[in-house]
């Protein structure tokens, strides 16, 4: 049986079954890492990163983005308290622009976490849902989503109060609005309450 199998010439031996598949997936992930922008590792459609837009290679082409109080987010940090909050939803209760961070109240608990913007992604509301603008012409405005194109990652919105309509707005220029929080805290106390 000494000549039954040919010696392998690749640097890493081929593992049988699922173990080999997982090794191949991990190797592909590691190989792709240097090609990605540093802030894009946790970025998904609808997410916001600090600083200017990264351009075509780094994700969104939205020229200026800023998080707003009342925006609903999903926590993307896997290491925070052993992953306890990973993929949990919450509401932005405070924006710390100087630090590039936000304070997030975790949904269903009284926990408040200070997180860098790279560790949160915004949620995009369904058609008919309430949103807050976080970039471009709709920044800081309360909105209603009138149409949503998931494939193109674009929404059409109408500004609350004025009725002004915008179409072709990128997902990462809007965030789902926690209406209860917004009406109780932000609208009743002003923009800095």
UniProtKB/TrEMBL annotation:
Polar residues bias spans: 1-11
Region (Disordered): 1-63
Gene3D superfamilies: 2.30.30.140
Biased composition (Basic and acidic residues): 23-33
Chain intervals with Low complexity compositional bias: 34-62
Tree of life domain: Eukaryota
Record protein name field: KN17 SH3-like C-terminal domain-containing protein
Protein source organism: Cafeteria roenbergensis
